[in-house]
Amino acid sequence: MALKLKHKTLSGALMDEIRQAILSGRFAAGTQLRQDALAETYGVSRIPVREVLFQLEAEGLVKILPQKGAIVSELSRSEIDDVFDLRLLLEPRLLLASAPRLQEADFVALDEKQAEYVRAIAMGQVNDYGRLNADLHMAMYHRAEMPRSQQIVASLLQTSDRYTRLQLSNSAAMDKAMAEHAELIRLLREGQWERSADLLRNHIATVRTDLIKVVSGQ
Prior knowledge:
The chain is mainly α.
């Protein structure tokens, strides 16, 4: 039975559906994503399916291989290092550029996003963890006049979604993430920008360390 896609544009809705299926593990690592089967499942032609698979390849969620087609990417140490090295380079830079320009309305929005993030974790809304984490981070950076860096970081955070779900799979990691986000907002509100950048670096590095342990089975 075909699933009807009703929201956004067709390609946008299809992208969301297939991305969530990968991030949730419904399409496990190594799964072959056949265009004809996906087209039948979602009630669309193969053309938008092909376009979406190419976009998911750009996000690192899918690999398109000769003779095999689209395969869900494996979780790997090399990708973790690549993504988190870039995040460590770019996010503190964005934060320091944005922080002095943040206004009271921005802090109200940050408090709301933090509260939404905490609620999602308390309710076990796993599918929302990555998106809410990315929204919170980008809200801290949005006053930086660095559109190219912001675009790159937004993409990195989207790629990190798959790993964020793993990293937040235990209560200690959840509690630490919530506490560090709250502390980041406090430091920014108080104008302690260098300390907030240091905490952000430690926050990102800790997530990387946790993920490496999960992927390596430690």
